Amino acid sequence: MAADSMLRFVVTPQSYPDKRAPDARADDFREIADRYAVPRAEEQAGRCSQCGVPYCTVHCPLHNHIPDWLRLTAEGRLREAYELSNATSTMPEICGRICPQDRLCEGNCVIEFSGHGAVTIGSVEKFITDTAWEEGWVEPLVPGASRGQSVGVIGAGPAGLTAAEYLRANGYDVHVYDRHDRAGGLLTYGIPGFKLEKPVVMRRVDRLKAGGIVFHEGFAVGDDASLAELRARHDALLIATGVYKARAIDVPGNDASGVIAALDYLTASNRKSFGDAVPAFDDGSLDAAGKNVVVIGGGDTAMDCVRTALRQGAKSVKCLYRRDRANMPGSQREVTNAEEEGAEFVWLSAPHSFVGDDTVAAVRANRMRLGAPDASGRRAPEVDPGGPIDMAADMVIKALGFDAEELPHLWDAPELGVTRWGTVLVDSKTLMTSLDGVFAAGDIVRGASLVVWAIRDGRDVASSMHKYLRAKAAADAKVAA
Fold it and tell me: What are the tens digits of pLDDT across the range 197-248?
């Protein structure tokens, strides 16, 4: 490598992959930007300052070796860059697409602070691994020598899939149970194709299946088997269900027809993309075509709903959020994308009621203002005395986040300890629940969070389960002797 291949941020401007024109991308569910060509990826990777304390790595939940694989990319050593990226992440091309880099690695890039614009870390990460798939560098999952022990994983989302991969590589028989007919969890059914095209997820799942992990799809714990029955089948269990219970809006008219939950809406859209029959979509209940749509919420799920409605041909799409733009929890990039595609954001507004007889016809919204900071330091929204406003709505999508389902009740397992929020209670060191040999990880432990944190949790819990299972095997062998 030439000595000047790095630290090029002064002479090379920041450049993300080109996005398709808004009117073109709003007509389909393809990802909105293509990946870099090789020269441009090398050029952008070469902007890295190779700083002594890489804040990008520090602020990445997986602590990816970002400066190192950026350097390798700039040098044209793409296979080595992929292998290093893959060493700490089971899904680097997925994280490259959907991680909120503006809040994590890129938002903490040293050259971002210097005013030159962060290194485009996520786009380079996506480029590296997509190239690896095309070139055949992504190796099969090779099981370790059989240990004669089996593990059951409940939930085929990012935490469960990550743990399953590491445990299989350590020689365990791994069975994954999921209520849906396809693995992937929210990666498959919750995130729209314009952010994450589904073949990207399915090739990861297919790799795990080819590695001998057994998937039991369409399997609902509590109906098809109790938690106790699964414990009897396996030497250890992992609960990685995620959180799927939609948070409610306690306002008049909440039960009106046309007021729907975000995940129901997104799942229906993603199923149609797979070519599935979706009666609730086909009869118009979950289809935004020709409708005035109002989305309630300011997180990434709300942005997914807004942008999906636009692609379905909604007459108008408004997003109500009770704080201002600077205080919204979702990615600012997603807001920009939505605005480019035709969404209208109504800041400092919150639903007062949903107007209509049996079917919603309008949203009556309170104007809000930001008051004193709350316990988290954020200024708390309060109702502005100016009075409510009405806006037409044929469909209202509630995207206020997700809470944990009542697993002890659903699974007939009252002995399973949970927190006051309903999340599964675990030992902070071992990640084991109140039940011996039953572990938990991901959103069902930490609450609704990011995919990258679920991957991190899956990696951590696999290590803890491996220690537990080795100790159990040693104890069983001692008893047998």
Answer: 999 999 999 999 999 999 999 999 999 999 999 999 999 999 999 999 999 8
Mean pLDDT of the region 95-115: 93
Which segments of 155-217 are extended strands (E)? 173-178, 214-217
E-strand ranges in 258-408 read 259-261, 292-296, 316-320, 344-346, 349-355, 362-373, 379-383, 389-392, 395-398, 402-403
User: How many CA atoms does the CB half-sphere of 300 hold within 13 Å?
Assistant: 17
* pLDDT (tens digit per residue) in 348-361: 999 999 999 899 99
**Separation of alpha carbons 271 and 245, rounded Å:** 19
* Chain centroid to CA 23: 26
Residue that the structure tokens 């118009």 belong to: 284
Does the pTM of the predicted model rise above 0.90? yes
* DSSP letters spanning 268-307: HHHHHHHT---HHHHTTTT--TT-EEEEE--SHHHHHHHH
Rounded to an integer, what distance in angstroms lies between the CA atom of residue 400 and that of residue 421? 16
Q: Residue type for 72, please?
A: L
| CB of 406 closer than 8 Å to CB of 422 | yes
Instruction: Collect all residues with Cβ–Cβ distance below 8 Å to 167 and sequence separation of at least 6.
Output: 151, 153, 174, 462, 465, 466
**How far apart (Å, rounded) are the C-alpha atoms in residues 346 and 365?**
10
**Integer CA distances (angstroms), 282 to 264, 271, 286, 351, 390, in order:** 14, 12, 8, 28, 29
